[in-house]
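Changelog entry: the Sodium-dependent multivitamin transporter record was regenerated in this release. Current contents:
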Amino acid sequence: MGDVVQMHFSTVDYVIFVVLLVASAGIGLYYAFSGGRQRTTQEFLLADRSMRCLPVSLSLLATFQSAVAILGAPSEIYTHGTQYWFLGCSYFLGLLIPAHIFIPVFYRLRLSSAYQYLELRFSKSVRICGTMTFIFQMVIYMGVVLYAPALALNAVTGFDLWGAVLAIGLVCTLYTALGGLKAVIWTDVFQTIVMFAGQLAVIIVGTHQAGGIAEVWRKAQNGSRISGLDLNPDPLERHTFWTLGVGGIFLMLALYGVNQAQVQRYLCSRTEKEAIMSCYAVFPCQQIVLTLGCLMGLVMYARYGEESPLDQGYVKSNDQMVLYFVMDVLRDLPGLPGLFVACLFSGALSTISSAFNSLATVTMEDLIKPHVRPMTEARATLLSKMLALAYGLVCLAMAYIASLMGSVLQAALSIFGMVGGPLLGLFCLGMFFPWANSTGALVGLASGLVMAFWIGIGSFVSRMSASTNQKATNLIQALYSLSYMWYSAHNSATVVVVGLLVSFLTGPWKEKDLNPGTIYPVLGNLLFFLPERYREKLCCVTPLEDNVSHLNSTKQNPVSNTAFLLPL
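Regenerated structure tokens:
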């Protein structure tokens, strides 16, 4: 294994790393000075609704395939075995439901921001609360995503920590603020290819050095790293088939169903059909990404066995282990470590740029436009660019705060589950339950967020305290021990249940009083066996097509001062 030494980059590695940054910035500048030159908010924030299926699907994939996942998944497999792979079972429903329920509703309403939906369905106050929750979620997540790869890189190669953070943060801010959503999507496509190339290089070389794939598998089996199907229904177990395959669906829905970064991708597609196809195309790509992460973890195990670099003292945390392994495997192949680091930072760039763009969009559409007098396109576009720039600087500040946090993959996913869950619950409450009113929505969202942070912070504190190994003795301790994969499901269910209870107590709404097109008749479809008159009393029965055609024919515009009904 050699001495405990820091491994260093060769000149070729630095060149490859710089080429990634320059190419990303170049794509941004190209879209800043070509085509419509980002002169309208429609082009800057929604790419003129002109994107095709392939770039959109790769961008959807790249947005949450961040450096956190590239570093986290292999070390998870190395430490705990292949159980994590069952997360792939959740992708099927986790992408099918957005494709056939959320996309049709959002696309047909011709929205610019997902949170416009909340005003159409509930009220302006619900929209503002939803927007603020999303901003909070993404700002925290951005910090983790930017800081994680820089820290690992610094620990393993001595690459300047804050130099890397600043380089990534500033390049990202530059091309997002200049090139708008088109630049973000096309850089995502480029960065996805770099991500695949980097991971493949490591797996191929590592497998070759370990003596072939059969040898890797044999060693993993001997070390009991190949997990069978664990059907233990206990929700307190960290990873079982149920926590990953079922709990994961809710995490996927929070990401691919209602997160503005992804909804914006759907809305920038040429047609609704292309938006749905791009969601379908993500499915095989997600499976490939997950499989690559698992393979890398197994190759790591074949190389180190039980003597992990962490136990040997070569690295300080799980997140650094993958980079140490990469530098160890590729040390005699100049250029390839640089390719992997480029792959890692591609993950960070694609996630952060999407965050900047979606944050600029919601701030503009949900917080500024409805509350100021109408402004010219040029002024609105300039303001959107300034917002993207401002969020870039906020992200750098958050990276500093993230430097004070602990283990990365779980922290990022927990924040997503903690805040993404209540937001998912809020959209489900509005879309599936016609009786829900705006009071119910506000109280539901608040209780979901309180529950989320109570469990999230409680579990963190109880892990830190000495009594971590005792089995849950009471309900509160059991809640704290809940698997982090169930956070999204638990918190979204809280919002729906509380929201419905409050709505019934304060006077439920009727379907005919609501804006057409804001309800998806899921209950009407599920209860198809009941007579029509009972279904009408119980739930929504109007098909979505009828609702939206009615909306477009009457040209109602309940959202003041926003680009609600854009020219069809």
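Confidence is low (pLDDT under 50) at residues 1-5, 552-568.
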